[in-house]
Amino acid sequence: MLSVTARTGCLRPVVRKLLPGLTQVSHLSGVATHWKAERYVSVLTVGAMVGAAVHPTLAFDHAMAILVPLHTHWGLEQVFTDYVHIKPLIPVIGILLKLLT
User: Fold this and answer.
1) CA-to-CA distance for 99 and 69, rounded, in angstroms?
2) Which residues are CB-contacts of 17 (< 8 A; sequence separation ≥ 6)?
3) Residue 17: what are its φ and ψ, rounded to 5°?
4) What is the pLDDT of residues 54-92, one digit of tens each?
5) Is 84 in contact with 64 (CB distance < 8 Å)?
6) Which residues pair with 19 in a beta bridge?
7) Which one, of 67, 81, 77, lies nearest residue 100 by Cα?
């Protein structure tokens, strides 16, 4: 029963049964869920922008107030993660990212 992977759903973690009574939970399921959330927020942001331009209402204003900072934060976080590889700067950039968004 070594290294058998059981998938219980798209939002649940991957569980590996290593030995009877010993299991390992994979982190990849959380990454996939976060990736899906980023895509949903991107699509909703575009829809909210179009909706706010066509028919400005309080609902679209609130949607934009939530979606635009979230989309900006995740986007800047991805840019910093991909392009900044200097170890001493990583904590500083984390603080800077929180201040910017």
Assistant:
1) 12
2) 1, 4, 6, 23
3) -95, 105
4) 999 999 999 999 999 999 888 888 888 888 888 888 888
5) no
6) 22
7) 77
